Amino acid sequence: MDPPLICAILPSVLCGEWMPADRTDSTDYADERRIAPLKALCSKLYPCKPRVRALADSVYTLLRTPVTSQLSLVDLIVLVVYFFGVVVFGSLFFRKSRQTEAFMAAGRVLPSWLVGMSILATYVSSISFLAIPGSAFRYDWSRFTFSLSIPVAALIAVRLFVPLYRQRSEISAYSYLEHRFGPVARSYASVFYLLTQIARMGSVMYLMALPLHALLGWSVSSIVLLTGVSVTVYSMLGGIEGVIWADAIQGFVLIGGAILSALVLLFGMPEGPGQLFTVAIENGKFGLGSFSLSDWSQATFWVILLNGIFINLQNFGIDQNYVQRYIAAKSDRDARRAVWLGGMLYLPVSLVFFFIGTALFAFYMVQPELLPPEYREAGMADRVFPFFIVSQLPVGLTGLLISAIFAAAMSTLSTSVNSSATIIYTDFYKRYFRKAAGERESMRFLYLVSFVWGMLGTGVGLAMIGVQSALDAWWTLSSVFSGGMLGLFLLAYFFPRASKLSAGTGMVAGLAVIAWMTLFDTPFHSFLIIVIGTSVILVVGTLASRARL
Length: 549
What we know:
- The chain is an all-alpha fold and 549 residues long.
- It has three domains: 6-64, no CATH class; 73-465, Sodium/glucose cotransporter; 479-549, no CATH class.
- It has helices spanning 6-15, 32-35, 39-44, 50-64, 73-91, 100-105, 112-123, 126-138, 144-148, 150-168, 175-181, 183-216, 220-267, 273-282, 301-318, 320-328, 332-366, 384-392, 397-433, 439-463, 468-482, 485-494, 500-519, 529-546.
- Helix 1 runs parallel beside helix 4 (50-64) and helix 7 (112-123) packs antiparallel against helix 16.
- 50% of the residues are buried.
């Protein structure tokens, strides 16, 4: 009896051990570096008889035929299955999300591990997936200090913010500002949250599309449209529960992809794993930067640490993307555990990404002929990892890693779509226009605004193709106004005597400082803008409240 057809197909497709009868070499079908991990598998497969071999030849030719400049049919199948699977899976929660409470808060019954994985996936955007290895490839591990600040922010969030939001039971993070300082403060925070989210969505899609366009041959607009439409569909149909479940799955995909890449790099060094560490240490790639306490104009260890504490306080403390997940947890205990899980998981995950960047440096340092010269130019470091994925990883694994890049983007985007729709509904539609809106009307509005917001984010991503400089200017102005939100929240929480007038005085002073540091040259590094701006809001607001303003 002939062995199964798979015995002929797998060696041919995955390992290049077999070739069609009219071929005498394998160089066009498999690169030795991409087939090495699968040699052991191929050697164990039962040898095929001629009639099975003939059929395997034709299947082999089909599957190994490139469908883009770098992507094989196998990789494309993996990518298509991933996209289709995520959209279908996220949409399966449609029946469970047909009430406003379920759409925005998942019935408040989700377990801690699920919410925590969703927090992690939301935190790791495609920008991080590419930028962290790029930073470690070009420089060192100084940016890892940012990750070290997360436990501090998570501790404060667990002790202060999670109980606050859970006790109030309101889904909007910004309703607390109305309680303390009136509706203007709430609307201010909500507007700039929404503006920041729409810009973030466009940036994530655009910056993800750039390296994939160069490597896969797909147009930037096609990649942006594919991602934007896919995310919008399952975010609109599945509600927050569909988003959280899909995010959790995508979190496992991106973690698995990162670990596999790190292992391939570690064991792919010509002289073994030890060579990687030798090269990295000789070139100072594991350094954490300067520990100087006198120079605040450079990104020293302390500057990055302070920036990380304040940025992560803003993320864990006042960002609707995170607050909505605290509300969705089934208990206060689960919400606290979710924060710790998502925050603490980011430490080893970011460590893997930094290791990938260092490993890429060592890999191409000892094999410089494998990296085209243009990837060594300034500004190209973020594209080295995607180039490695499509040029060095085995067929099939390439598709999985490209899926992981998409997963990092889609988890961030889906969160923005649902959370933004929630804020528009709770802070504007329900607050000012239709206070008595029923369930049916409310759900129609949530579906509509989710779709419109997803398309707006996609439109911003497409617009960035031609007007990058204009959007960069908008990002700068946006950071000025949204930068004061953390200070306002902290003032409201820690200083109960602060009035509307004293809060407004603190905000004006803080925004003036933030604008000065953003728009003009100062003796401080830009990482300190949020640190100094927030501190000014707290100090001025406190002094104003004591002066009975």
